[in-house]
């Protein structure tokens, strides 16, 4: 019960955005409803290199329970850790070190529990091993996990016409990926491991720390996209926990409307589950073909389901969330960029209903090593514009996402971030 109570505390501020946890969520969080070919779910604190991360919410809950801490203590801990102890909620200055004993006890955190906590937990369980700046003002971070594996996290800079700058962080949810989409470098290495929620949250913290080291306020990191390595819905429980951490006011305090989960929708029923659990989080579906045959050309995992099932899951999500999903459509020369393909895409989008129509994001194929194996090429600008014009004629809301200078963009589809290439 206590464990559930602490979890409720962590979710309290997002009660309307993310559905309150129930025992069902706890089962889900441990992955029992996620179908194969997934790896077994990670137990809390399963990483071999303890100490545990302060952002390992499960372990913090267990610690609180075993040390008789109250909900207020957990809130205080995160307030001190993420906010340097200033009043109110909302992150102001990120830190990479543990709070000191006096910082905690000054706030009436019980002394023996504070000292035990500081010897059992570390501020971060991951570290940044490399930072590569991009020509457009973003950064690519190579992050070393406690298991010895590495992932990449990308920070994307956007400058508005009014001169204001904001940043989006693109998070990885797995090391590698089991889904083997034909254009994706990550898919070629297979699934190595699921990331625990703490490693997902730490990517966000590393991004804030990096920006802070460049004198860029943490508050300018406003958006999150799950478009890095991995299929987020194949690691559903941990991704859901990370969504709770990202949106909780005493952790990272992001609005759910600033977060996008991008998926190839390998299991449409999981989209329905996401609609139930986190309706306010944006959904982007990598479609790449609006007929069963066309979609299977680039997304082999679509073979286990039908395009009609996917459509029904999108309709369910739209009803629950009150808005349509983003449909990401990678345009590959001679594969899915013809007029017939555009008509089937328009028809798929139109079938979603008048109020909650999806928005179609056309992404010209960005050459990857994986795509080269299939001789994939970027369509000509003329073909891209003609495909787009056909959608517009059909009154489908859409735009073309031309590549940014470094080939990465917040609107890019999963697998088009060309990580590691
Ligand atoms: S595009 Fe996404 S789902 Fe497909 S293989 Fe790559 S990471 Fe996995």
UniProtKB/TrEMBL annotation:
Pfam families with a match to the protein in the record: Radical_SAM (PF04055)
Q: List the GO cellular component terms.
A: cytoplasm
Q: Which GO terms describe its molecular function?
A: 4 iron, 4 sulfur cluster binding; metal ion binding; RNA methyltransferase activity
Which compartments is it annotated to reside in? Cytoplasm
SUPFAM superfamilies named among the record's database cross-references: Radical SAM enzymes
Q: Name the predominant localization.
A: cytoplasm
Q: Which GO terms describe its biological process?
A: rRNA base methylation; tRNA methylation
Residues of the signal sequence? 1-19
Instruction: Report the InterPro entries cross-referenced here.
Output: Aldolase_TIM, Methyltransferase_A, rRNA_lsu_MTrfase_RlmN/Cfr, rSAM, rSAM_sf
Which domain of life does the protein's organism represent?
Eukaryota
The cofactors named for this UniProt entry are: [4Fe-4S] cluster
Q: Which UniProt keywords apply?
A: 4Fe-4S, Cytoplasm, Iron, Iron-sulfur, Metal-binding, Methyltransferase, S-adenosyl-L-methionine, Signal, Transferase
Query: Which residues are in the Radical SAM core domain?
Result: 163-404
Q: Which PANTHER family match?
A: 23S RRNA METHYLTRANSFERASE, RADICAL SAM SUPERFAMILY PROTEIN
Q: What is this protein called?
A: Radical SAM core domain-containing protein
Q: Which organism is it from?
A: Triparma columacea
Its lineage reads: Eukaryota, Sar, Stramenopiles, Ochrophyta, Bolidophyceae
